[in-house]
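Kindly inspect this today.
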Amino acid sequence: MGKILTTIGLFAALATAAALLPGSALAGQPVTQTLTPPPPAFEICKAIGSGTLCQGSRVLVEPLFDTGIVCGSGASAFDLYYGDTIDQVGRRTYNLDGNLTNRFIEERYTSTGFVNPVTGASLPATAHDVISDILAVPGDGSSTIETTTGQFIVTLPESGALLLNVGRVVQRAADGFIESIAGPHQFLDLINGDPQVTQRVCDALGAQP
């Protein structure tokens, strides 16, 4: 996935995100200084009193790909595939020197799920996350502390939640070290190779012993 979900809890952030919805006006003075690091192409920037504000939205499509997780064994084995579409809204601010100080991203996942490519069996998922980055040293991405809140829920049709990933994760960008984590994170457990979680997903998609 473009971002492997780690998270929940977004109500305060949603009020902020409402200002970033597609079609919101971004009037203001044009930006004439160099921005470090430069904003992504989908964000439009304007000069503000404290520096520069950039914001925008886009849709990211991630076709089905092999996760590298193998279900079952022998002739019945299959690789676990995953794919999604992400509606993404972003905002970032720069100081008067043109250096990035923080950024905010909200993502809503659609057409999300795991697939058994042999039989075509699938497990749908719903996901929504909010990512907030604070740069301790403006302009230096390696100094970023990233906080992700949200949810990633894989459901078994007619049975309810099969995989639950909800909560909050605080992580260092430089080395990926997780400073704190709260809530169940079974999707992370799956990615990290937890045998019980992996077996649960594989069984639901038709793996045989």
